[in-house]
């Protein structure tokens, strides 16, 4: 357990030093600033929630996941990583923990930034209930995106880099935008974060219980597949 905790702290530190993490956060904050011209707080929060349900989640979290696993191949540091006195499975778990930690930190920072912007520009209709509602909604959407980003780590390991998983993330974004409002979207895991907005009244997309199961399933397959790949393949 101690070795796993040490590996998690190392991966969190490595990701904190990454330009990809902070570049993604700056991009998110820039886009939020562009959507500031809304009539009131609820409309502003609705735009941010939809952005997290689409571009921010699929591409933002996808980029961080792809880079975290793929950089070890592109920088040729994987061999050095695998000789450390820790199991390969724990290395994968540590990387996943670092991704989850920093993605939630990004959501909290960007949401706080949006609240500060709203106060600075004097948006009307503020309420603590609205802040609580949309913060919880965005965090829930983020959790769904972290699950569907798990297969990107496996693709990074298989392709030995981050270009293939990033391309896959962009493809899934296009699929979600095209099929999300159709009957197919109900069974397309990458559309589920946007479908989840139906519960808050932000969007009107069809949603079924199986949608959440498919998100959980694809996340589980991606996680287990990545752990097994590192355990069985990289020792050769």
UniProtKB/TrEMBL annotation:
<feature type="transmembrane region" description="Helical">
    <location>
        <begin position="162"/>
        <end position="190"/>
    </location>
</feature>
<keyword id="KW-1133">Transmembrane helix</keyword>
<dbReference type="Pfam" id="PF12730">
    <property type="entry name" value="ABC2_membrane_4"/>
</dbReference>
<protein>
    <submittedName>
        <fullName>ABC-2 type transport system permease protein</fullName>
    </submittedName>
</protein>
<feature type="transmembrane region" description="Helical">
    <location>
        <begin position="98"/>
        <end position="122"/>
    </location>
</feature>
<feature type="transmembrane region" description="Helical">
    <location>
        <begin position="20"/>
        <end position="37"/>
    </location>
</feature>
<feature type="transmembrane region" description="Helical">
    <location>
        <begin position="49"/>
        <end position="69"/>
    </location>
</feature>
<feature type="transmembrane region" description="Helical">
    <location>
        <begin position="210"/>
        <end position="230"/>
    </location>
</feature>
<feature type="transmembrane region" description="Helical">
    <location>
        <begin position="134"/>
        <end position="155"/>
    </location>
</feature>
<keyword id="KW-0472">Membrane</keyword>
<keyword id="KW-0812">Transmembrane</keyword>
């Amino acid at each position: 357990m101690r070795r796993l905790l040490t590996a998690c702290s190392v991966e969190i530190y490595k990701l904190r030093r990454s330009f990809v993490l902070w570049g993604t956060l700056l991009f998110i904050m820039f886009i939020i600033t562009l959507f500031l011209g809304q009539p009131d707080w609820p409309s502003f929060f609705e735009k941010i929630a939809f952005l997290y349900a689409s571009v921010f989640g699929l591409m933002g979290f996808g980029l961080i996941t792809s880079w975290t696993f793929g950089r070890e191949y592109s920088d040729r540091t994987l061999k050095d990583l695998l000789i450390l006195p820790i199991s390969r499975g724990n290395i994968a778990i540590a990387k996943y923990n670092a991704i989850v930690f920093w993605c939630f930190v990004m959501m909290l920072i960007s949401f706080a930034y949006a609240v500060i912007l709203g106060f600075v520009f004097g948006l009307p209709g503020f309420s603590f209930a609205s802040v609580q509602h949309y913060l919880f909604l965005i965090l829930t959407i983020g959790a769904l995106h972290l699950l569907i980003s798990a297969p990107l780590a496996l693709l990074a390991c298989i392709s030995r880099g981050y270009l293939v998983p990033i391309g896959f993330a962009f493809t899934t974004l296009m699929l979600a935008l095209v099929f999300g409002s159709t009957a197919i979207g109900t069974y397309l895991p990458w559309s589920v974060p946007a479908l989840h907005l139906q519960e808050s009244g932000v969007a009107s997309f069809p949603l079924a219980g199986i949608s959440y199961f498919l998100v959980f399933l694809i996340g589980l397959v991606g996680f287990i597949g990545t752990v097994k790949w590192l355990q069985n393949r990289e020792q050769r």
